[in-house]
Amino acid sequence: MVVCGDDFGMNAGIDAGMLRLARLGRLSAVSCLAQGPSFAANGPGLRDFDLDLGVHLNLTEAFDAPAQAAVMPLSTLIARAYAGRLDGAWLDDQLERQFDAFERVLGRAPDYVDGHQHVHQLPGVLPRLLDMLQRRYGERPPWLRHTAPGMQEGIPLRESARARLVGALGAGAVARVASRDGWRTNRRLLGVYGQQGGARRYARLLQHWLHNARDGDLLLCHPALPGATDALASQRAAEFDVLARPELGDWMRLNGVRVARPA
To answer: Which domain of life is it from (predicted)?
Structure first.
């Protein structure tokens, strides 16, 4: 199972938490906000680990005032994507800038691509993303995150509905290009929830996700050390607490799961 930490580069607390979990062998992939405030400083530290490193495509998060005009609220982006009203030149510019920034910091191509708030799979975004990946990387393009939900046994209705909604926004399109054109993807996605409830609730959900995991599935997470400075800081710290616990190794062994990079 691929265990993927999202939002690396957003702030120092997130970056430090993921680096700590990488040292513990609890992550096998890290999704990078290539233009995030802390990525240039902390991204090079990722080279020390056996991880898949990906571009976490951002079209909705403004990290400073000059960037505000370059992004839009998620609801606006989704509406424009489904109406066929995305500005192609704007999108191409965002793609090139973020992939350039990733390669400038890490000195290599990304292993995979996903999206902050799953924007990579939206209509209008996915076709231009695939075109750019083919231009830049030819016959060795990165793999794509597939958001079709994994098994939901034991998952509360609210959280399983959220997982299905994420998949409904574009998993079918990713599956079609994978089948038709040979793009590599993970099998299914686990780890979607409302990002609230503290460590106890996250631990319960995580045990269900481990039970439901199958070969090739991807478990996403959003950990950070305590003190991260964003709206989800408290729950990020709760995720870190659970993912860093020694007993997680026992939970994985009981469910026949191991943390691994994609085959």
So the answer is: Bacteria
Q: What tens digit of pLDDT does each residue of 158-205 get? A: 999 999 999 999 999 999 999 999 999 999 999 999 999 999 999 999
Residues in contact with 184: Cβ distance below 8 Å, sequence separation at least 6, in sequence order: 143, 144, 178, 262
The pTM for the full model equals 0.96
3-state secondary structure of 114: strand
How far the first Cα of the chain sits from its last, in Å, is 10
Distance (Å, rounded) from C-alpha 132 to C-alpha 141? 10
Beta carbons of 30 and 8 less than 8 angstroms apart: yes
**Which pair of tokens denotes residue 124?**
């209008």
Closest alpha carbon to 205 in 258, 150, 260, 166 = 150
